[in-house]
Design brief:
This protein has one domain: Ribonuclease Z/Hydroxyacylglutathione hydrolase-like (Metallo-beta-lactamase, Chain A, 4-Layer Sandwich). Helix content is about 20%, strand content about 30%. The chain is built from six helices and 14 strands. A seven-stranded mixed sheet has the order 6-5-4-3-2-1-14, with helices on one face. It has a seven-stranded mixed sheet with strand order 7-8-9-10-11-12-13. The chain is globular and about 50 Å long. It starts with a strand and ends with a strand. The structure holds nickel (II) ion (NI) and manganese (II) ion. Manganese (II) ion binds next to α1.
């Protein structure tokens, strides 16, 4: 499965024959200034929560592609009021889409939309079909609830976890999270975009390796195959 990382938590993957795009927000990320949000492709847009560094380019992409938004009830309702179509979910719920099953799972964080509108509670997504299962954690602390994922979802092939610290868990906690979710292949997200979340790549990759885990740190705009 090929994941394209556009910086922060913006990730594209072709899954079940559909293009899924998570948290389109290139224009909120100084490190992604060479990428054009207009170039992002999507059949479905998945939003983990309402913060600007996750939704900055939502309207640009939704307008261009007509892709429906999958997110929590509050965020889908908010964008629905602006004329965008979507599929509302809430924590613990799953739905079978044409690309596979998506489950909206807990995150410990906050969620307000850029104009101050309440964005519901933040979440992450576990996505699967018969062949593959992955977790995009969104923004979250390490949380005991992550232990529910292997109990309630198919075995994860890969997980996208925030590792930049300060606004989310840092890499030390992400290593523990990878134990909780029983997944040893991790793609790092939510790092380097701003000074608060810059990481030492070599040290962080080594810290995962020392625990027998593989951490993949993609280049911005780069594709990794898992
Ligand atoms: Ni956030
Ligand atoms: Mn964020």
């Amino acid at each position: 499965m090929k994941f394209t990382w556009y910086g922060q938590s913006t990730v594209g993957i072709e899954f079940g024959g559909k293009k899924l795009l998570f948290d389109p927000a290139l224009s909120a990320n100084p490190k992604a200034k060479d990428l054009n949000p207009e170039d992002l492709e999507a059949d479905y847009i998945l939003l983990t929560h309402g913060h600007g560094d996750h939704v900055a380019d939502l309207e640009t992409v939704a307008k261009k592609t007509g892709a429906p938004i999958i997110s929590n009830y509050e965020i889908v309702t908010y964008y629905g009021g602006k004329g965008y179509q979507g599929h509302p979910m809430n924590h613990g719920g799953k739905w079978k889409f044409e690309f596979g099953t998506a489950k909206y799972v807990n995150a410990v964080h906050s969620s307000v939309l850029p104009d101050g509108t309440y964005g519901g509670n933040p979440g992450g997504f576990v996505i699967w079909n018969e062949d593959f299962c992955f977790y995009h954690a969104g923004d979250t602390a390490l949380t005991w609830d992550m232990k529910l994922i292997p109990m309630t979802c198919p075995k994860l092939d890969v997980a996208l976890l925030p590792i930049g610290d300060n606004f989310t868990m840092g890499y030390e906690d992400a290593i523990i999270a990878s134990d909780f979710i029983e997944c040893d292949t991790i793609i790092g997200i939510h790092f380097d975009s701003f000074p608060y979340i810059e990481i030492d790549h070599e040290a962080v990759v080594k810290a995962f390796a020392d625990k027998g885990k593989k951490l993949i740190l993609p280049e911005i705009g780069g594709t990794v195959e898992v």
